Amino acid sequence: MKAPTVIGWREWVELPEWGLVLRAKADTGAKSSAIDCASIERIDDDHVRFVLRLDRKGKKMLTLDGRIAATKVVRSSTGIGQERHFVETTMVLAGRRKTIQVSLVCRKRMIHRMLLGRTALGPEFLVDSSVDHWATPRKAKSSR
């Protein structure tokens, strides 16, 4: 197995299947990853349509459809459980490609549109929490 790649507490992440580059916060205290959705609509038993909020003000949006990979109860930082749909996508971070599951949730009050939890990070990545943007340049441009 290849040695883990060191990343900072915040990095630029590419989601090539969705044509996106987003700044994500690496959160080793969270098990699962999450992405900010303005709306989530179950289309049928195993598909969901979701609108990603790409900026804090909600001026940039992207509507996507995806297969539901899982539905789980996720406990927020406040301790309240919420049922969430998860979709799979490919993440590219620091040149490493990995299939991850991302929960669809409203994060409009949060600074970062995406959160990378332990399942997405390990064992390929090692987070240096003292560094911002260790593996990706600070001024990367969003593709949207």
Describe what you observe in this structure:
The protein is mostly beta strands and 144 residues long. It has one domain: Acid Proteases (Cathepsin D, subunit A, domain 1), CATH 2.40.70.10. 3% of the residues lie in helices and 56% in strands. The strands form two sheets. It has a five-stranded mixed beta barrel with strand order 4-5-6-7-8. A two-stranded parallel ribbon has the order 1-10. A hairpin with a 5-residue loop joins strand 6 and strand 7. The longest helix has 4 residues. The chain is globular. The mean pLDDT is 91.
CATH superfamily: Acid Proteases
CATH topology: Cathepsin D, subunit A, domain 1
Which sequence of strands runs across the widest sheet?
4-5-6-7-8
Average of pLDDT: 91
- Low-confidence parts: none
Pfam family, one: Zn_protease
Domain Retropepsin-like aspartic endopeptidase: 6-131
Protein name: Retropepsin-like aspartic endopeptidase domain-containing protein
InterPro entries: Asp_endopeptidase, Peptidase_aspartic_dom_sf
